[in-house]
Amino acid sequence: MTKPCIICVAITGSLPTKANNPAVPITVSEQIESTQQAFEAGASIVHAHVRNDDQTPSTDPEKFARLKEGLEKHCPGMILQFSTGGRSGAGQARGAMLSLRPDMASLSVGSNNFPTRVYENPPDLVDWLASEMLTHGVKPEIEAFDLSHILKARDMADKGQLAGTPYVQFVMGVKNAMPVDRDVFDYYIRTVHRLFGPDAPWCAAGIGAQQITLNEWAIAAGGHARTGLEDNVRLDRDTLAPSNAALVQRAVDICEKNERPVATWQEARTILGLPVPALA
Question: I need a labelling partner for 103 at 20 to 30 A (CA). Which of 43, 129, 186, 201 fits?
């Protein structure tokens, strides 16, 4: 298979702390350093959250602005994707950083259960986040925790709420949401191709020990892969991941095993319909 594989590194998230793994980057400077290492290892997208000094989640646009500035300097050309996820804040605060015009932002288009609560994505908030992304030229990544979320993305695209071909990411392995199920995974792929065309790009993310499973499935099936300490802090049951770069390298190794080239940042931008800047 000659199709390049885009590797997304989810560097921090909202939940893991240094008590879970000392390698989790919390401060902006740690995030920049960790991302640069992952970029050099083969990641072409960074999925970013920001944190407060006490490691709690934040939606502070000033922190996102400093992160964006640092990543553009140290990871030139890398696709910057900011999270609008609900663990970091409530209501429109979740999209406060979209005016910074990152390349991409996550967009959860429906609600679902999380381990101890409901992950609420009410229609009015989803519509507002989508409109902000359109206004600021930010490409959404549709986070599909359920089949209905893929169908909702098609409906939003038909209504002009999403520009271009949506990039859908299957999220599997969250407790109380969609488990890691191969039949469901294969049906997700068929649904994306039926609704958005046979060449529509898609990605998959697995949580915890299931990260490597979803990496293997997605890469072998011609999709793109997400890895990183946000979703999984271990290499195996007994070994903490020493860095985000180590998890990216594991995905690179899976690509090599499946004879798929790892997408450069230029290739990733072309696949996703993003501008390819000429760097100095």
Answer: 186
Q: DSSP states of 128-163 as a string? A: HHHHHHHHHTPEEEEEESSHHHHHHHHHHHHTTSS-
Q: Which residues of 179-216 are buried (b: 16+ CB within 10 A; e: fewer)?
A: ebeeeebeebbebbeebbeeeebbbbbbbeebbbbbbb
Ramachandran bin of 13, using left for φ above 0, alpha for ψ from -120 to 50, beta for the remaining angles: left
Whether 175 is in a domain gets the answer yes
Mean pLDDT of 210-221: 98
Cα 116 to Cα 142: distance, rounded to the nearest angstrom = 23
Q: Report d(CA 265, CA 272) in Å as an integer.
A: 11
Q: Residue 211 is encoded by which pair of tokens?
A: 């990260």
Q: What percent of the chain has pLDDT over 70?
A: 99
Q: Is residue 59 part of a domain?
A: yes
| Structural domain containing residue 144 | 7-272
What was the pLDDT predicted at 280?
A: 64
Residue 104 amino acid letter: M
Number of domain units in the chain: 1
CATH number of the domain enclosing 72: 3.20.20.70
Residue 227 lies inside a defined structural domain of this protein: yes
Cα 8-11-17 angle, rounded to 5 deg:
150
Neighbours of 237 (CB within 10 A): 6
- Which residues make Cβ contacts (< 8 Å) with residue 54, sequence separation at least 6? none
What is the per-residue pLDDT for 247?
Answer: 98
| Cα dihedral sign, 85-245-104-52 | positive
The 10s digit of each residue's pLDDT in 10-62 is 999 999 999 999 999 999 999 999 999 999 999 999 999 999 999 999 999 99
Residue 251, both tokens: 């995905």
